[in-house]
Amino acid sequence: MDLKRRDFLKVLGVTAAGSLLPGCAGETKKLIPYVIPDEEIIPGVADWYASVCRECDAGCGILVRVMEGRAKKVEGNPAHPVNRGKLCAKGQASLQGLYNPDRIQEPLQREGARGEGRFRPISWEDGISRWVSTLEKYPGGAVMISRPVPGTLSRLFSTFMKEISGRLLFYDPSGEGTLQAANRRSFGVDRFPEYDIANATYLLSFGTPFLSDWLSPVHYGLAYGEMRQGRPAVRGRFVQIEPRLSMTAASADRWVPLRPGTEGLLALGIGQVILKEGRVRLAQGDRSRFEKLYGTVSLDQIAAKTEVPREEIIRLAREFSEAAAPLAIGGGTASSQTNGTNTLMAVNALNLLVGNLGESGGIRFIEPLQGFPAAAATPVSDQALLNLKDSFKNKKRSLLMLYQSNPLYTLPPSTHFGEVFDQAAFTVSFSSFMDESTAMADLILPDHFFLEAWGDFLSDGGTPAAGLGQPVVIPRNNTRPVGDLFLSAAKRIGGNIEKQLPWTDFRTMLEDQWKTFLAREVPGQPFEIAWIERLQQGGWWKPEQRLISVSRRPLPESIESAQFEGDEKQFPFYLTLFESMGLQRGEGANRPWLQELPDPATTVVWGSWVEINPRTARQYGIQEREIVRVISPYGEVEAPVIFFPGNRPDLISMPLGQGHTAYGRYAKGRGVNPVILLAPLVDRDSGTLAMGATRVRIERTGRRGKPVLVDQTGEGTRRSPEGRRRSET
Amino acid sequence: MVDYRDQNAPPGGPYQWGMVIDLDRCTGCEACVVACRAENNVRISGEEEASKGRANYWIRIERYWEGEYPNAQLKFMPVLCQHCGSAPCEPVCPVYAAYHTPDGLNAQVYNRCVGVRYCGNNCPYTVRYFNWFDPHWDEPLNEQLNPDVTVRSGGVMEKCTFCVQRIRGAQRTAQKEGRRVKDGEITPACVQSCPTEALVFGDRNDPNSRVSKLKESRRGFRLLEELGTEPAITYLKKAE
Q1: Which of A15, A157, A447, B193 is the most buried (most CB within 10 A)?
Q2: A76, A96, A711 ranked by CB distance to B141: nearest
């Protein structure tokens, strides 16, 4: 080819210009997303910011790794007393909440009929004006349902709602209302104690899912590890009593199945044997009231009703009373019955019997944080939420506000809670995600995700700490912190409410609360220095824990029996619904990492399933993976069967968390929500929904389902002959 | 002439990385599984691909059912690459993508891999995962991706690296300061997250490391060790 030098240069010039032209403006902006580089950002070097995890209500301290302005990884904060550097699957996946493609990106106003799901973007100015004008239109008509936010936000919400004569309900569907009620009665203390599992030598757990979703799973996970292998020459033993072999029971030395709802009775039987054999630690003159309680039912009757053999009850009693540091805890399946509070009081009585209150390895009440300005967020019961129906019906209330609360999904339809939404003249949601309840709202004013916002979180119970959270990344969307919204609404309404809430933004309010608090706790240190230190540490906690003594120690008067809905002949099965590891009560369903997280017992991902004892399945002629219909007096759901050797033969179990009708692309239309089976029964004493009180029956459909099991272990995993399956197509 | 390896060698001899997994502590909570995914940019497979057995987990919790009701028992075991001393995956690779590092890691060189999958076939622990397609993250989920770790493209075999990016980072720091990596200085993502502290990582060549001490436990065993793979991971069986 004859190419002259001049031509060559021309070609070169055109090529060079061509390769340069398209890139300029657009591409470089993407490389480093700042015109003036942030001085904290060095490309390739990570910054770590301390914050508090808000994926459940345990309040673990976290450190977030941020590179080039983007959050990359969440780790536990080693200094934080709740989780000491550890973190669970949910906390790890919080980044997929932050970077979720289905986050609400701007304020939205409903178009078309309510619940139709059509929304129109509006400006923040319009959005706030509409909300404030509705507040003024219905004086005293507002109700706010918020997830518990102990800390400055709680103070803001409480003050605001009080000033507008509204009602504020802190609601947590997986809260431990029964445990709170039982402890209030047994110990006269309205807080959770520290269950000193780490130092116990014998742990007797009545259905408590403390390794998956009870109180503070990471905290108690740490304690469990220490109980097992953390002490030289001492290995704590652990027995789990519950109708279904849960993930927690899998770690137990022994699993004792019993008839659902009879946990209190079994505790009575165990106490009776201990008292009879005399291995008790009771104060002088205390014995008679225990004798009164434990004398009510004979051991044979207890064995018959609980279906736990008499020998097993005696064995449990001896093991428990002979242990150096015995501890009994209750929750989960034991507390999700109509007699939940009563059952947990009977469990508390066992602890009183062996006198482990305040002891190492026992129940210890820790002195709470003092002096944080009015920040408690005591959750209300499900019943309190249901009572809203009346106040909306008779027009006492007309305006509904929702903050990170999705009652339309978490409450069973049999409670008819939807009426509140129907009756409400106006509904505002501050949610970051289009969940089922937010989809019914008239106005959506989306909050920042917690990793983008300022916030604090007071943990109570065994590890009193004030966690402090800061924005770790620049907010992605056109959202606003919910605190700022409430403060600007206060300003617009004016008058007394403005005087009570004079701050311009939530950050200033937060700093003010901490100024008051730190002036008390670290006197003498200038606030600016103390504040930076707290931000670096991730909050404030005492180096030493002080125990408080408990004087009230009443016993339950008698053992109540659990009530079930559904005729035993027509509906022969008990039903247990459990929180799955990642999805919780559905909150995790929009995070792909959690959808693809295998259920530890069945290895199912991305869907729902029904667990049936293989023996029962054989009786019904059901094949594994066949779709069955689970029917209760209130509804029915269909899902594929997985054989589950850890179920009582008369028990059906299903995971919670799927079956969303909204909540983004990963959650919507996937699996079923078994909550629709539930009867509107609540625990008598605490008003907590009795999730285990509905009976069901099953019907075959003959159709084959496609549950996705990621079991890598292949044949021979299940050594029981019934559970074995041939390799499938 | 100086061997380049000598220049990088830590004072006091090479490292031998290893892990101990205490099954008496493990509760099957799967914090490690998500932590690993977040750290190592492990793809999201989705329901469709997972149903074909193509979901990738560099660490997984295996579950074993034993017995029948009421004596049913469920046992969990975290399984990840065992970083075998005599690894069956390495000699079968035609392009030397699977190789053994001097400090005892089974490394995978992604840009050498041609996807013949012999290594996956030969691994008795089935801990090698193949990328059947290019990975995909719905925007903006991709903003979370860890810049320290390569995103593997379709047709490439991938596996647990003991979080090699963290190991190399700590090694460089130690080298600059003229010392060995301290015990506990390196924690792979799974170890760091584990709530019960069931997973321990460290240098097997250091007799005082936690790993070296724990692996001498009477409860210790290695997975399928009768195959002669010499795994770098020691399991401690559940105590009675």
Answers
A1: B193
A2: A96
CB atoms within 10 A of CB A516: 14
pLDDT digits (tens, 9 = 90+) for A353-377: 999 999 999 999 999 888 888 788 9
Residue ranges in chain A modelled with pLDDT below 70: 1-38, 712-729
Distance of alpha carbon A163 from alpha carbon A144, whole angstroms: 13
Please name the amino acid found at residue B172: R
Asked if A94 is an interface residue toward chain B (Cβ–Cβ < 8 A), one would say no
SS (H, E, C) A34-64: CCCCCCCCCCCCCEEEEEECCCCCCCCEEEE
pLDDT tens, B17-44?
A: 999 999 999 999 999 999 999 999 999 9
Interface residue A396 vs chain B (CB under 8 A): no
Around Cβ A63, how many Cβ atoms within 10 Å?
A: 21
Asked if B57 has any chain A CB less than 8 Å from its own CB, the reply is yes
Taking only residues 149 to 188 of chain B, the set having a beta carbon closer than 8 angstroms to any beta carbon of chain A reads none
CA–CA min distance B7, chain A (Å): 25
CB-based contact A225 B198, cutoff 8 Å? yes
What tens digit of pLDDT does each residue of A94-148 get? 999 999 999 999 999 999 999 888 999 999 999 999 999 999 999 999 999 999 9
Question: Which H helix or E strand runs over A269?
Answer: helix A263-277
**Predicted confidence (pLDDT) per residue in A212-249, tens digit:** 999 999 999 999 999 999 999 999 999 999 999 999 99
Q: Does B61 touch chain A (CB under 8 A)?
A: yes
Residue A220 C-alpha, separation from nearest chain B C-alpha, in angstroms: 8
Of A86, A605, A649, the CB nearest to B69: A649
Beta carbons of B89 and B124 less than 8 angstroms apart:
no
Q: Which of A94, A250, A97 is nearest to B29 (CA)?
A: A250
pTM: 0.93
Q: Is residue B106 helix, strand or coil?
A: strand
DSSP state string for A113-143: STTS-EEEE--HHHHHHHHHHHHHHSTT-EE
